[in-house]
Amino acid sequence: MGAVPVRTPAPAFAFPDGHSGLTLIELIVVICIIGVSGALLLDRLRFYQEAVEKALMEYTVGVLKSALQLRVAAMLVNGEERNIESLARSNPVEWLTEAPRGYRGEFRAAHPEVPRGSWYFDATASELVYVPDLDWHLGRLADGSKRLRCRVELGFEPAKPDTAGKARALTGIRIVPVMEYRWF
Q1: pTM for the whole thing?
Q2: Three-class SS string for the chain?
Q3: Percentage of the chain surpassing pLDDT 90?
C-alpha cells in the first residue's frame, strides 16, 4: 500500500497566472479613489464648520436682541423712558452678563486688526461687528468687506403736521444688520 498524497486546500482567493498582488495601474486607481473621497469629505467638513459658525453668529445676535428687550423693559419699569434712545449709541455687549466668545472690545477705527472669528464694537459708528473665520459662502457686502455689522435701530411714529417741534413717540427698538448679507 502506498502513501496517500496530502492535498493542501486551495486559497480562498487565487490570482490568475500566479500574480500575488495589485498591478501598478490598480494601485493608482485605488489611490485616486481614496484621494477624491478624502477631498469630498474635507469639503463637506469645511461646509458644515462654516454653517455652524453662521448659526453661532446668528445665535449671538438673538441673545443681544433678548438683552435689548430686557434692557428696554427695565427702563420702562424704572421710569427711564427718556433714556431709551441712548441705547442706539451704546455697546450691546454691555447688556450681557458675559461677553460673547471672541469679543475683542471697543475700537474707534473703521477696520481694526482683529483675528478672524472675532466680535468688536465700532464706537464711531455705534455698530457691533463680526469678522467671520470661515467665509467661503459669504458674499461680499456693499462696502466690499466681509465684516458683518449690526446696530440698534429706533422706530418712531410718523411726524404729523400739527406736532411740529414736538418729540416723536418711539414705536420700537431692534437690532438690525447695517447691510444685507447672503451667507449660504
Answers
A1: 0.81
A2: CCCCCCCCCCCCCCCHHHCCCCCHHHHHHHHHHHHHHHHHHHHHHHHHHHHHHHHHHHHHHHHHHHHHHHHHHHHHHCCCHHHHHHHHCCCHHHHCCCCCCCEEEEECCCCCCCCCCEEEEECCCCEEEEECCCCCCECCCCCCCCCEEEEEEEEECCCCHHHCCCCCCEEEEEEEECCCCCEC
A3: 73
